[in-house]
Design brief:
Glucose Oxidase, domain 3; GMC_OxRdtase; 19 helices; disordered N terminus; alpha+beta; 8-stranded mixed beta sheet
Length: about 625
């Protein structure tokens, strides 16, 4: 699908505040003729997680006009998006349906790459996990940016600003019986946000197998974590979810930050326009095509790209900023030669194991096995916005390598890491490796994530119930790229994750599969299991497990890094103000600026980046805002 096949032109004019109440924030819909004539201060390209939040925040400043160009439609009050138990992934109405090129290290497997094609972007189709990485992972951002404000202490106010943590009436801290340590959670409530746009809450319903897995992980040395928001995300937790429990709906960027209805138009973005003074480019407008005719919308202050880690590099390249060799191949004049654009692509790679559970053990398979029960649950949700369609899986654990492997195995893994690290010549990768090596050796930061899926994933049989565990490497060595595939802006980009191309990643993934299977052999989880269905318990050599990984792997939909924030001489694309090198006023505000992956699902961090970018683009607001 193209970068901007259906572009929605939206105009925000001095919204007093971002709010979930549409009546309090009424942006002005624009026809193409109106849109190009308006004297914009800012144009934001991409109304996804970051772009929607940032455009709304910029428009809070009185007298400021913000144009938002989003690839996709508006789906407010759409049950396919709002209902926590449903998903828009794989539906062309909501998802770009991108795919990777074949991945050689995974047996030429083609990876599905879901990306939200709607106002709110991927915040409207993701799994809603809401969490932060550990403090030292955010502190590493200050190493890349050479700016102390990109640190745990510097970002925490913005992480708090974006969220409203909610408690379910009658339960002082939902899920705390799972976490076992209520006092630790209550003592850390000062790190949560209570006045932000996105509602973060715990699951209101948890199946019994979740507790079995938690107890089993505890017995294997993985502690519970009562407050992963407080700067240490390691351990097992009942994660927060971006779900408004009072309404029983997904809480995402479109209805919370943007809070409006607007007019859809077929605007096809092609590139950013610049003027040049000396060696510096100044972004002046965004070109787009409607009905075969080309238009340009102009901005007096800034152009901000928020098209995400997959599409932002493509738009930069279409605009003449990128690797000169690649641009020349597609007949695009090079304005700024920045070879790192589109490089440094990082993703979380997961592999799953599955077990059939005993009769009477309830899971979400109830909805699959009993149509009458599913229909009843649908009626309950329609009437009260409660029940199983208001719930989802929520067990997440971040483990160190020390939690999973023996000291001898850790030594072997680090030797593999060191050998690969010695072969890299990229300054950016060398800096990344020095940081990751310390994390792995000290065991103070999550290296592996485990997710519980309380339902069948692999060919579930009728009338049977299953539990699956997904294990993923969250600080991978493998680096991929995303680049334009054509000078035609309607062509999809070429996405090559190069997943598992690193021997270190392969060896960690093998250890992950072994650990997942070990969980299934330990009580109390083993007490509810009939059999392990995946992988085949009889195929257990490392080579066989690698073949299984080829079959059972998938990405976490957490793509980052393709316009990295780092010094230019170390391979950076943007500086600490998120300004593209060689330009005076072109910023990138999305997950592509994150230079090194984090042990967290990315949406909460991306919202925080957007909140921080608001004061970078409009510094006077720094002294006005309350960063509660």
């Amino acid at each position: 699908m193209p970068l901007a096949q259906l572009l929605t032109a939206l105009v925000l004019v001095a919204c007093v505040q971002a709010t979930s109440s549409a009546s309090q924030c009424q942006p002005r819909p624009a026809t193409v003729a109106q849109f190009v004539k308006l004297p914009f201060d800012y144009i934001v390209v991409g109304g996804g997680t970051a772009g929607t939040a940032l455009s709304a925040r910029l428009a809070e400043e009185r007298g400021v006009t913000v144009g938002l160009i989003e690839a996709g439609n508006i789906h407010l009050n759409d049950p396919n998006i709002d209902t926590p138990g449903l998903s828009g992934i794989g539906n062309a109405s909501f998802d770009w349906l991108f795919s990777s090129v074949p991945q050689p290290a995974l047996g030429e497997k083609v990876i599905s790459v879901p990306r939200g094609k709607m106002l709110g972007g991927s915040s409207g189709i993701n799994g809603m996990a809401w969490g932060r990485a550990s403090a030292r992972e955010y502190d590493a951002l200050s190493t890349f940016s050479c700016d102390s404000s990109w640190s745990w202490a510097g970002l925490l106010p913005f992480m708090r600003k974006t969220e409203t943590f909610t408690l379910i009436p009658g339960n002082p801290y939902p899920g705390i019986s799972l976490l076992q340590d209520s006092q630790a959670a209550l003592d850390s409530l000062d790190v949560d946000g209570f006045n932000g746009s996105i509602v973060a809450s715990h699951n209101s319903f948890i199946f019994d197998p979740v507790f079995k897995v938690v107890e089993t992980l505890n017995s294997l040395g993985v502690p519970t974590n009562a407050e992963p928001q407080a700067g240490n995300a390691t351990g097992v937790t009942n994660t927060l979810l971006s779900i408004d429990r009072a309404e029983g709906v997904r809480s995402y960027a479109a209805p919370t930050y943007y809070c409006s209805h607007a007019q859809d138009s077929n605007y096809h973005a092609t590139k950013v326009h610049f003027t040049k003074k000396g060696n510096t480019l100044t972004a002046t407008g965004v070109e787009f095509v409607v009905g075969g005719k080309t238009y340009v919308a102009n901005a007096k202050k800034e152009i901000i790209l928020s098209a995400g880690a997959i599409q932002t590099p493509q738009l930069l390249e279409l605009s003449g900023i990128g690797n000169a060799t690649i641009l020349k191949q597609h007949g695009i004049k090079t304005l700024i030669d920045l070879p790192q654009i589109g490089e440094n692509l990082q993703e979380h790679l997961f592999v799953a194991a599955q077990w059939q559970v005993k009769p009477g053990v309830e899971t979400f398979d109830l909805l699959r096995n009993d149509p009458a029960f599913a229909a009843q649950q649908q009626k309950i949700y329609a009437k009260t916005h409660t029940g199983l369609f208001a719930a989802t899986d929520s067990l997440i654990a971040f483990l160190t390598l020390q939690n999973v492997v023996s000291p001898a195995e850790l030594e072997s893994l680090l030797a593999t890491f060191d050998q690969e690290a010695s072969e890299t010549t990229s300054p950016l990768t060398q800096l990344q490796n020095s940081i990751r090596r310390e994390w792995f050796a000290k065991g103070e930061t999550g290296a592996i994530e485990i997710l519980q899926w309380t339902r069948g994933l692999f060919d579930p049989a009728a009338n049977l119930s299953y539990v699956a565990l997904l294990g993923g490497i969250v600080h991978p060595s493998s680096r991929g790229s995303v680049h334009l595939n054509s000078s035609n802006p309607l062509a999809a980009p070429t996405i090559d994750f190069r997943l598992a191309s690193s021997d270190f990643d392969k060896q960690v993934l093998i250890q992950i599969v072994k650990f997942l299977q070990k969980i299934g052999t330990q009580s109390p989880f083993s007490d509810i299991i009939v059999e392990q269905t995946n992988p085949d318990p009889n195929t257990q050599s490392d080579e066989e497990l690698l073949q299984y990984i080829n079959f059972a792997s998938s990405i976490g939909d957490h793509s980052i890094g393709t316009a990295a924030m780092a010094p230019k001489d170390k391979g950076g694309v943007v500086d600490h103000t998120l300004t593209v090198y060689g330009t005076s006023n072109l910023r990138v505000v999305d997950a592509s600026v994150i230079p090194l992956h984090i042990a967290a699902h990315t949406q909460a961090t991306v919202y925080a980046i957007a909140e921080k970018a608001r004061i970078l683009a409009s510094p006077a607001r720094m002294f006005v805002d309350s960063l509660a």
